[in-house]
Write a structure and sequence with these properties.
Layout (H helix, E strand, L loop, with lengths): L5 E8 L2 H14 L3 E6 L4 E5 L9 E9 L5 E10 L10 H17 L8 H9 L2 E2 L6 E2 L18
Antiparallel strand pairs: 1-5, 2-3, 3-4, 4-5, 6-7
């Protein structure tokens, strides 16, 4: 977690214009103030308010075509509005997630992180402890569940 700001990406299926409109609507519904709207570049900048509990964030969102046909990538980057703030304690990341979760809701689909398919493939190739059957990492030397040695030939 960075000290100041955060970023996230999600991939959706559908039309780029439809996703861009969903991002605009989600920002409005989350009560974020629209600072900049560039439909040509499919880029918006929104801010969240300063309050007793929030330092406020400035969030830049860019909607672009994904790697595969029919994929739409939404990239969001946030930074605190207060320039003197040393750390935002993850607030910018929470603001991004709040916005992207609202986009998920509006589109009726859950966005996935880029490369999620390869992560799922890697998860399906998990290694299991020969003693108790618990999932273990390939780099582990001992099972985190039962303590059995995972070294080959021991």
């Amino acid at each position: 977690m960075p000290l100041r700001g955060g970023s996230a990406e999600r991939v959706y299926t559908g039309d780029v214009s439809r996703v861009f409109e969903a991002v605009l609507s989600a920002a409005e519904e989350c009560r974020m103030r629209l600072v900049e709207n560039n439909p040509g570049q499919r880029r918006i900048v929104v801010t969240t308010g300063l309050s007793l509990f929030s330092t406020g964030s400035e969030i830049e969102v860019v909607v672009s075509s994904g790697a595969s046909p029919g994929e739409v990538c939404v990239s969001a980057t946030a930074r605190p509005r207060l320039k003197t703030l040393v750390t935002d304690w993850g607030q910018a990341g929470r603001e991004i997630n709040r916005l992207l979760n609202k986009v998920d809701e509006m589109l009726g689909q859950e966005g996935s992180e880029p490369g999620a398919a390869s992560k799922q493939e890697a998860a399906s190739e998990e290694i299991h402890c020969p003693s108790c059957g618990a999932a273990v990492s390939a780099k582990d030397k001992f099972c985190q569940n039962c303590g059995a040695s995972l070294k080959q030939g021991s």
